[in-house]
């Protein structure tokens, strides 16, 4: 009987450690101080699942917000200046200005009154929120507004009973520049490219050379004619025509290359934002685990070693968060360097690629690519130039083998052109296979996301029935969000691969820088 009693006691104690007990928290007489003034509420603040909850109308009005309650839908709406917040009772998803935000603790109906999570409310409305554990006091300063307007898990005290609010749709990072569309980034890169400016200057110089060569022609000589001066002049003019066309093609290729380079760097920012977001969530998860470990230890259900392990995990996750933040900064700097922005400029990148099944006739595309490729085109112009040297060969003063060497040069140019075609064909087939492999991975990720969504829905239902904890809901959300981040990486890789498939001769240029 004693054993059964001990087991039952341990089970009850574990449940209270993880899920929290609201009634016990109410006895702590939590105080709320706003700008140095102690607030007095008809319903007292409560501590529920490691989160401070306060009566919704009282806190919003204290912070200068207008508030309304839709009883039919159990929805709370508060507005202050440009910010609008929406909550639903028992929902772990809130909305700030239309952006969904995952809450560790939802709004709740307690003893006939509606309560909302204090930290999220305060910080979302631009206030600074601190917890004084010694006096069980929440101190709010509305005069000090967080620079980003976002609540970051890493900034929260991992040991206070205020809730952990985590952004679920985007990473917490500041922007200081207007949103940048992909097409606008390409236009900036083209106008800022010294390589393109140099190619434009070369094209102008080549046009001048072509005009000079035209002035030297008195008449068009027959092929292999005997007038050496006329042959030389016409050969030079024909060569300059080809050189001018080559310069035009090089300029076109430079501009196309800028488009692919921007595509890779633009998508790298999108991917880095998602990775930073998941790093933030992982820090929040590690902080939560540390709180649980410490509470268990205080109730003799875990050892100091367990707490140390949780602290080490938190340290590792914070280090990973710093790495993700640096990678995001580097991604911005990399694109900024080619579009002429300052290194520290940050902006939204709204053109997120969407998944679409890719279908194409590879054999037909190989032919199109070989016909459109500047590499092949210039190789074929090289053949024409070499043949001109034969057609208008000047035998006067030439060695015995000079003509044969010209013929050999034609053959070498043909081999070079054939090799360029073969390399393009191989690149097209390889990229197509890469796209199909990524599509297969997408299908696998979709299946995993469906399972994760189902698990999250089930966990939320269990939570509503009191059969699971809020932390278990958060873990299920973290699993789903991690899969979404992997999906973003995969779709951006697909987007890059599809552009490389369309113009494979740009792949080398797009990968540079």
TrEMBL record:
Ranges for domain Copper amine oxidase-like N-terminal: 33-140
SUPFAM superfamilies membership: Copper amine oxidase, domain N (SSF55383), Outer membrane efflux proteins (OEP) (SSF56954)
Localization: Cell outer membrane
InterPro entries with a match to the protein in the record: Cu_amine_oxidase-like_N, Mao_N_sf, TolC-like
Pfam family, one: Cu_amine_oxidN1
Coiled coil: 421-455
Keywords from the UniProt entry: Cell outer membrane, Coiled coil, Membrane, Signal, Transmembrane, Transmembrane beta strand
Signal peptide: 1-26
PANTHER family linked to this entry: OUTER MEMBRANE PROTEIN TOLC (PTHR30026)
Protein's UniProt name: Stalk domain-containing protein
Source species: Paenibacillus enshidis
Source taxonomy: Bacteria, Bacillati, Bacillota, Bacilli, Bacillales
């Amino acid at each position: 009987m004693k054993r059964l009693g001990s087991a039952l006691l341990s089970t009850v104690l574990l449940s209270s450690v993880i899920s929290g007990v609201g009634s016990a928290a109410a006895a702590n007489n939590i105080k709320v101080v706003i700008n140095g003034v102690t607030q007095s509420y008809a319903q007292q603040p409560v501590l529920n699942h490691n989160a401070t909850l306060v009566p919704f109308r009282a806190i919003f009005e204290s912070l200068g917000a207008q508030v309304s309650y839709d009883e039919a839908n159990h929805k709370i709406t508060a507005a202050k200046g440009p910010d609008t917040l929406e909550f639903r009772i028992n929902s772990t998803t809130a909305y700030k200005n239309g952006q969904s935000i995952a809450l560790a603790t939802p709004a709740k109906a307690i003893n006939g009154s509606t309560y909302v999570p204090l930290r999220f409310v305060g910080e979302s409305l631009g206030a600074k929120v601190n917890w004084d554990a010694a006096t069980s006091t929440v101190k709010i300063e509305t005069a000090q507004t967080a620079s980003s307007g976002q609540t970051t898990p890493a900034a929260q005290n991992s040991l206070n009973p205020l809730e952990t609010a985590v952004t679920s749709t985007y990473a917490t990072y500041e922007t200081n520049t207007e949103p940048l569309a992909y097409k606008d980034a390409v236009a900036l890169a083209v106008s800022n490219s010294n390589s393109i400016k140099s190619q434009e200057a070369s094209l102008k110089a080549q046009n001048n050379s072509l005009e000079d060569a035209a002035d030297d022609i008195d008449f068009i000589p027959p092929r292999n004619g005997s007038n050496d001066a006329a042959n030389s002049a016409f050969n030079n003019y024909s060569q300059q025509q080809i050189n001018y066309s080559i310069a035009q093609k090089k300029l076109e290729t430079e501009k196309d290359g800028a488009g692919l380079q921007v595509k890779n760097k633009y998508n790298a920012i999108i991917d880095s934002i998602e990775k930073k977001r998941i790093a933030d969530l992982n820090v929040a998860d590690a902080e939560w685990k540390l709180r649980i470990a410490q509470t268990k230890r205080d109730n003799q259900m875990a050892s100091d070693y367990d707490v140390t392990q949780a602290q080490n995990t938190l340290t590792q996750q914070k280090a990973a968060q710093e790495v993700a933040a640096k990678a995001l900064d580097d991604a911005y700097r990399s694109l900024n360097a080619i579009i002429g922005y300052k290194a520290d400029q940050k902006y939204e990148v709204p053109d997120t690629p969407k998944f679409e099944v890719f279908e194409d006739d590879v054999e037909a595309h190989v032919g199109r690519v070989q016909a459109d490729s500047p590499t092949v085109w210039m190789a074929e112009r090289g053949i024409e130039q070499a043949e001109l040297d034969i057609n208008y060969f000047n035998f006067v003063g030439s060695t015995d083998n000079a003509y044969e060497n010209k013929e050999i040069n034609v053959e070498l140019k043909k081999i070079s052109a054939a090799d360029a075609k073969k390399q393009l064909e191989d690149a097209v087939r390889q990229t197509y296979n890469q796209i199909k492999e990524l599509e297969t991975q997408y299908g696998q990720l979709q299946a995993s996301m469906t399972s994760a969504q189902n698990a999250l829905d089930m966990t939320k239902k269990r939570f509503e029935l009191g059969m699971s904890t809020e932390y278990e809901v958060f873990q299920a959300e973290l699993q789903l969000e991690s899969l979404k981040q992997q999906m973003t990486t995969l779709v951006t890789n697909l987007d890059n691969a599809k552009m490389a498939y369309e113009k494979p001769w740009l792949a080398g240029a797009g990968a540079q820088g």
